[in-house]
Amino acid sequence: MAAKYNLVIPQGETYDLDLSLNRNDVDYDLTDCTIYGTIRDSYNAGSYTEFDIEYVSRNQGKFRLKLNKEKSENLNPGNGVYDVVLHIPLEELPDQVIRLLEGTAKITPAVTTQR
Question: pTM, whole model, 2 decimals?
């Protein structure tokens, strides 16, 4: 079951969120795993924005969700939705895909723009 966490993302700014993944208080090794996530205006929206993922320490389960200025500028102000998914490749079984995090993504509109 995914953890619920609501984001507030200022439009036109860089956005970073540091996260750690552990199970039973033991760091989860993310070696060979892939994390990805998207933001949409609604669950049914066809277009989306992908988070950039930075692996801070794979063997300690530490990673960072990121949006650069250009990506956040293109988000529509208002309430959207997002989720973050972990893909675990397995050699002898079908790969596992686990939703780690989900919630609303409130995009606050920018008033001042860069000159």
Answer: 0.89
Distance between CA 111 and CA 29 in Å, rounded?
Answer: 41
Mean pLDDT of the 47-66 span = 97
Q: Nearest 5 degrees, angle CA 42-CA 47-CA 53?
A: 90
Q: Which amino acid is at 56?
A: V
Give the whole-angstrom CA distance, residue 34 versus residue 52: 12
Domain 3-108 has CATH 2.60.40.10: yes
- β-sheet bridge partners, residue 15: 67
* Under 8 Å between Cβ of 90 and 72: no
- What are the structural domain ranges in the chain? 3-108
